[in-house]
Amino acid sequence: MNFTLYQIAVVIILHFVFDFILQSHWMASNKSKSNKALLSHVSVYAIGLTIIAMNCLPPIYIFPWVVFNAVAHFITDYFTSRASSKLFNKDWHNFFVIIGVDQVIHYMTLFGSMKLMMDYL
Fold first, then answer.
1. For helices 5-16 and 92-120, what crossing angle results, to 10°?
2. DSSP 8-state symbol, 18
C-alpha cells in the first residue's frame, strides 16, 4: 500500500487537532500524574482516530486500527508526559526534544499500523 497525499494530510491534520487543539488544559496539565486525565485525553483522541480511519481505511480495519492506536497513544503519552513534565520550565530544549520524540512515535505508530493492516490483513 502506498499512502496518498490525501491520506497523509488527513492523518497529520487530524492528529494535530485531536492531540493538541482538543486536549483541554486539565488534560494537558494532569496527564503526567493522573491516569484519569490521560485516559480522558486518549478518549478524545480516539474520536479523531475514528475520523481518520473512516477517511483512510476500509471499514473492516477501522475498529482494530483505532483500538491499537489508542492503546499505543496511551502508552506513549504515559512515558513522554512524565518525562516532559520534569523538564517543563527547567530545561526548554530537552522538554521540546521529548515533545518531538512523542510526535515521531505517534506518526510512526499511525502510519506503520495503517500500512501493516492494509498490506498483511
1. 140
2. I
Q: Is 0.90 surpassed by the pTM of this model?
A: yes
Alpha-carbon span 41 to 54, nearest angstrom: 20
Q: Which amino acid appears at position 31 of this protein? A: K
Among 39, 50, 41, CA closest to 21? 41
Residue 27 CB contacts under 8 Å (≥ 6 apart), including other chains: 37, 38, 40, 41, 44
In the numeric block, which cell numbers belong to residue 46?
Answer: 480516539
CA distance 3 to 111: 9
CB atoms within 10 A of CB 35: 12
pLDDT tens for the 121 residues of the chain, in order: 788 999 999 999 999 999 999 999 999 999 999 999 999 999 999 999 999 999 889 999 999 999 999 999 999 999 999 999 999 999 999 999 999 999 999 999 999 999 998 887 6
Contacts of 54 (CB under 8 A, 6+ apart): 62
